[in-house]
Design goal:
The protein is mainly alpha-helical. Helices cover about 75% and strands about 0% of the residues.
Length: about 190
Amino acid sequence: MGNSARDNVTLLLGQLSNGQEGAASKLIPLVYGELRRLAGGYMRRERNDHTLQPTALVHEAYLKLVEQREVDWQGRAHFFGIAAQMMRRILIDHARGHLRDKRGGGAIPVPLDEALVFAPEQSSELVKLDESLERLAKLDARQSKIVELRFFGGLTVEQTAEVLGISPKTVKRDWSMAKAWLHGDLKAEHN
């Protein structure tokens, strides 16, 4: 994305925050490719026969993003950071709904039901990862955010550094530490 496109995204996000008509429809062509790439980053980690359609995830996340009226968008990096967070919440909510249905809980249908097919064990693993990530957030919020942006958002080290306003070297160090901590926490959960 060139500088003028970045500037346009920032300008449109400001208009969106102010409730300006038409800002959302002008924003989507500028951010759609990047949102799709974020969704695709997550999808590459799924088995081929149990995948979310990235398009459905992008549309659901985008609708939630443009409905945010209280957000004071700080720019493009802030927008994509929140987008990664939205995608995580959508995926986790769906996985929890799938587990409730499996136990006969009769959950309310989620809009992504037709587009998302998880194996029950994947739903369980995704929920366990989310719970472990919540525990990590209490110990180190930045490491938790890095995992969210890199794993759920599919951001590169450089993009994560831009979103969080830290150096790529710090992202790499915290990413390694967070992965090790999560591995230990998830292993302890299974025992």
